[in-house]
Specification:
The chain is an alpha+beta fold and 136 residues long. It folds into two domains: 31 residues, no CATH class; 79 residues, no CATH class. It is 37% helix and 24% strand. The chain has four helices and seven strands, in the order αββααβαββββ. Strands 3-7-6-5-4 form a five-stranded antiparallel beta sheet. Strand 6 and strand 7 form a beta hairpin. The longest helix has 21 residues. The chain starts with a helix and ends in a 7-residue tail after the last strand. The N terminus is likely disordered.
Amino acid sequence: MTEQTQQNLPDTGYRQCEVCGLSFEGRSDKRFCSDACRNANKRQVQRISSWQEPAFVEKVHRILRHNRQILKEKIKEEAKLIISKTDLIEAGFHFGYCTSLFSKEMNIYRFCYEYGWLEVENGKILLVKNERQIDL
């Protein structure tokens, strides 16, 4: 093989995926390990460019959606429920993120959309659902 032919061949060395960080083998211009990562990158770029928002905004939205899903799974169809704070922490709940606050009888409820929580005594959390909380 001539030197010129070798220069025209694609480099098939190992690369690191720009999305997930996994190592993969491929051409020198390949940036992603899979179609899923390529699509995830494309969605992220489109989301940022269309909304002109910094990346941390999407991260906050993701945390809020995750918190809401955890509260929804825990409370199910009940109006109120008392659980341990540890249960929420183990499920990946982030207490620092909420969409609104509601004060009632010297207690401050924190809400993630229609699901709220109030820290009561001894590491217990009161979960509530109030769909009026999301009325605009």
